[in-house]
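Hi R.,

Here's the chain you asked about this morning:
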Amino acid sequence: MTTKHDHRKLGRELGLFDTDPLIGAGLPYWLPDGAAVRHTLEEYIRGAERRAGYRHVYSPVLGKRELYEISGHWAHYSDDMFPPMSLGGEQVVLRPSLCPHHAVIYRSRSHSYRELPLRMAELGGMYRSEPSGVLGGLTRVRAIQLNDAHIFCTLDQVAEEARAALEMIRQAYEALGIAPTRYRLSLPGPGGKYVAAPEKWQRSTALLTDALDRSGLPYEAAEGEAAFYGPKIDVQVTDGAGRESTLSTVQVDFHQPEQFDLHYIGADGAKHRPVMVHRSIIGSVERAVAHLIEQHGGALPAWLAPTQLVILPISDTELPNATALALRCTQLGLRAQVVGPDRGGLGARIREARLVPYQAVIGAREASDDHVALRLRDGRRFDPQPVSDVIDRISALITAHSTELWADAAS
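And the predicted structure, written out as tokens:
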């Protein structure tokens, strides 16, 4: 269920991100709390990908124009690309996509059929020349950090790899506390922006349909929404204003493996063409964070919150205990902050920290016993309990990427 929160307003109020005309439209910068959210989200995705058998790479955000002529982006997508820059007698461009770089990385080594599926992932920057009129907050930007991956596989592996990608998307949405509006099978429509290869389009569409059917997911077909090189599954989400956008994608591509002359050595010792499956679990980090802010009204899941535990000493006397607790949390990887009495009375500080998942109050009695009186963001309050127990319970929930604030057995 979506909320009516505007991520642009809330993101600035919470000190997550901002913009400046001197940097430019569509080029937001991340403040420390926003950077903490972004880093945590990126590390979650990298971990999920590693567990699913992906290997991570880095590739440059620049590429020669020729690279995008080979991939087809220049012919079919140049209106959305920044103009070429002259460099040493060559033309280079800011990349609008990572897939050509990954195709080149794949072909830099010989591959056997025993290596397939080869899953290559990157959280990489890309740039799109969006018109000024469509820019807004984090949802439409010109500098994008994309959670991208490309799976190079045999034809009979495609449907299962696409199904596995859909399952990764489901798990990520569960951890993030969000839900898709619908699944869309995006197909070509009237117009000339698509690669002219009817047989490949039919095969790609059949494979994606198979993956959706294997996953048991309802979906709607939509003409005119495909990538220029192939159909895709788009996972759609809706913001508080009712605007729908694509967050995650799975795509099948026969075009670029042919353009870049990719191959693997089969069991018969001959060269064979791999299929390229493009997939993005959370899409762009910018759009994902925008949706999370709106979905949760700034009250992000505890594992993702910029401050996970706020420590509230009642008086200056308890400040040493609060500082020691904050240090213990930091050493365990928890994001904790001490908000002392110089920031106002206890009630005012509790209200100020209303979006922080956990509030640990330390008074004279708690300080003497190494206890804290814990409050949860949802209004629950607990009797004083040992600091070690509190830290252990919070750490376990955060490590599990749970959307629950407290385990039932502890409530």
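The chain has a mean pLDDT of 92.

Let me know if you need anything else.
M.
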